[in-house]
Design goal:
With 269 residues, the protein is of the alpha/beta class. It is built from 11 helices and 7 strands. It has a 7-stranded mixed sheet with strand order 3-2-1-4-5-7-6, sandwiched between helices. Helix 6 crosses helix 9. The longest helix has 16 residues. The protein starts with a helix and ends with a strand. It comes from Glycomyces sambucus.
Length: 269
Amino acid sequence: MEQEIDVQAERDQMYGELDLGSLTIFSGSFINYGYWGDLAADRDITLAERTASQAELYRRTVARLDTPPGVELLELGSGIGVGTALVAREFAAYTAGLDRSKAQLERAAEANAEDLERLSGRLAFHEGSVTAIPFPDGSFDGVYSVEALQHVDDLAAVAREAHRVLRPGGGFAAATFFAPDGAPRDTPLPDLIETVASGVDVVRPVGAFAADLAAAGFTAVEVEPIGPHVWRQFDRWVAQTEFRDSWGRNWLRCYESGWIDYFIVSARR
């Protein structure tokens, strides 16, 4: 238990006082690896293209949900909230962001001040845990998460809570990295990826999470690998930053070795 508390304290520090979103591997107040289109290999990636990749990952994830105008959505691990605001704007949704970090929620209020006013109640941020969601049963039409669940130790609890707060027929979608099914149990990931070694990032088999969703009562569970749209361009971007000689360059190596991949996992209640 003490080790788990220490790991969670490290996560809280990363997203709190250390302000992970301020690092140059991210941009536009987003914190994700991005969903990238084709980019010419003979030039540097622009800051605008980096930001666009992160916004696109939100679009690709939420597109797995049914989103008629006025749909009510919940984002798990909303961070600085610019993705939550994007979803509210572009999908004409009522969107609530949930995050455990008070510091991130303060940043979200500042970064999205104009949208909070302009969207007339269609955007809100709340403090709470994704394993004990502070909303009543059947509160939302859709629940989604973008690159946050790798920091959660109990994904079965996430699945149960997401199922509970969804209305019948509602959808769930999450984007993050997992181990591909069939990957070896023992890989050099902890030796190559600092956040895996520390326990800040937990890399589980994607099939285990799909099973958690099914056990929670979800149906139509789908697992879509999107690694070709993530790892190589993200590595190109990291190579342009001050992290060019860091362990951050090992993500691509791990992907190419078959030890990790990026997925969108979706399901229906």
